[in-house]
Amino acid sequence: MTDEFDTTVYYDDDADSAYVEDETVAVLGYGSQGHAHAQNLADSGVEVIVGLKEDSSSRAAARDDGLRVATPKEAASEATIVSVLVPDTVQPAVYADIEDELEAGDTLQFAHGFNVHYGQIEPPEDVDVTMIAPKSPGHLVRRNYESGEGTPGLLAVYQDATGEAKQQALAYGQAIGCTRAGVVETTFREETETDLFGEQAVLCGGVTELIKAGYETLVDAGYSPEMAYFECLNEMKLIVDLMYEGGMGAMWDSVSDTAEYGGLTRGEMVVDETARENMEEVLEAVQNGEFAREWIAENQAGRPSYRQRRIAEKNHDVEEVGERLRDLFAWAEDEEPSENDSEK
Ligand code: NAD
Ligand code: MG
Ligand code: MG
Ligand code: MG
Ligand code: MG
């Protein structure tokens, strides 16, 4: 533990493997997070059963990786810790199927707080409800574990029935490699609301709208789509890489003085008071549950609006230009595909 930050950060020394070594973990789902948690736990000496439907195409993969596979219900029945790693939208249905297998003192473990925070899963009072959320897609959680590095993560306790919920969550975090890098303590509410706001207003929604608006502004003014693509989309990565490595300061230091002065004076003309008020509205809809209700209803209706927006986004000019240009140039490095990124 350290007081270096406002928040508490836990490392390997704060975790005691005794809190998981005699437990059996049911890992429900074998996707991005599921495969990584299951294999890391097993390699750390924890008993693991992967819970998948009889007809799941992931069953073969889990078996090939040397893991025991059962139905979610069977796995949960045998387990003392049930790690819910199916997609957030299917968690309530999977939970309904395994609910009766939870015994007093068992643990329900999550990697994201949406369903618990918005009341889509209401665990019984006598089980521990915890979260270890790696801040990384699953393939990195696995790769970092194998290479001896760690993956930073978040820890939260929603319900502590046994008095040991936090110690056990820390031990789980250690077993999947998170405490090697550091685990930050938060709450289900804070993790859920900041995650949703970030992906909506800044990371996924904000960035794509900013790119499209910039691209359209240039093209509508008569500039070539290729130039607009380079300036508004392609260069985004270079700028973000600099900020990732050294904060905004490193980016400002790297660009020309002209770019720095122009950015410092014009940026706030674009993201102005109105944009900030809009962000507040987005945050409010996250906080009061309006967004969650909308997304749950959208799923129940078969995702009509989601489908339509996906198609429109795919057909945007900037996508067609980009596809053409990425094929033409050598800078389209063959990086690993970003499978199931967290911000989905
Ligand atoms: P995913 O979509 O990669 O995988 C889900 C797996 O669940 C599938 O591979 C399949 O095995 C199973 N599954 C799918 N549909 C099912 C159904 N109808 N019934 C039963 N099983 C089904 O999921 P993920 O991205 O690993 O997300 C799991 C959890 O981890 C979520 O709560 C998510 O928010 C959280 N999380 C994800 C990431 C990430 O980078 N992917 C990062 C942090 C937290
Ligand atoms: Mg059980
Ligand atoms: Mg327990
Ligand atoms: Mg330039
Ligand atoms: Mg998210």
Automatic annotation (TrEMBL):
Keyword annotations: Amino-acid biosynthesis, Branched-chain amino acid biosynthesis, Magnesium, Metal-binding, NADP, Oxidoreductase
Binding site for Mg(2+) 2: 195, 231, 235
Cofactor(s) recorded in Swiss-Prot or TrEMBL: Mg(2+)
Enzyme class: oxidoreductase
Family annotation (InterPro entries): 6-PGluconate_DH-like_C_sf, KARI, KARI_C, KARI_N, KARI_prok, NAD(P)-bd_dom_sf
Region (Disordered): 330-344
Highest taxon above the source species: Archaea
Any Pfam family hit: KARI_N
Catalysed reactions, as listed in the record: (2R)-2,3-dihydroxy-3-methylbutanoate + NADP(+) = (2S)-2-acetolactate + NADPH + H(+); (2R,3R)-2,3-dihydroxy-3-methylpentanoate + NADP(+) = (S)-2-ethyl-2-hydroxy-3-oxobutanoate + NADPH + H(+); (2R)-2,3-dihydroxy-3-methylbutanoate + NAD(+) = (2S)-2-acetolactate + NADH + H(+)
EC identifiers of the protein: 1.1.1.86
Domain KARI C-terminal knotted: 187-332
Gene encoding the protein: ilvC
Pathway listed: Amino-acid biosynthesis; L-valine biosynthesis; L-valine from pyruvate: step 2/4; Amino-acid biosynthesis; L-isoleucine biosynthesis; L-isoleucine from 2-oxobutanoate: step 2/4
GO BP field: isoleucine biosynthetic process; L-valine biosynthetic process
Protein name stated in the entry: Ketol-acid reductoisomerase (NADP(+))
GO MF annotation, one: ketol-acid reductoisomerase activity
Gene3D superfamilies, per database record: 6.10.240.10, NAD(P)-binding Rossmann-like Domain
Amino acids binding substrate: 256
Function: Involved in the biosynthesis of branched-chain amino acids (BCAA). Catalyzes an alkyl-migration followed by a ketol-acid reduction of (S)-2-acetolactate (S2AL) to yield (R)-2,3-dihydroxy-isovalerate. In the isomerase reaction, S2AL is rearranged via a Mg-dependent methyl migration to produce 3-hydroxy-3-methyl-2-ketobutyrate (HMKB). In the reductase reaction, this 2-ketoacid undergoes a metal-dependent reduction by NADPH to yield (R)-2,3-dihydroxy-isovalerate.
Signal peptide as annotated in the record: none
Catalytic residues as annotated in Swiss-Prot or TrEMBL: 112
Cofactor note: Binds 2 magnesium ions per subunit.
Binding sites annotated in the UniProt record for Mg(2+) 1: 195, 199
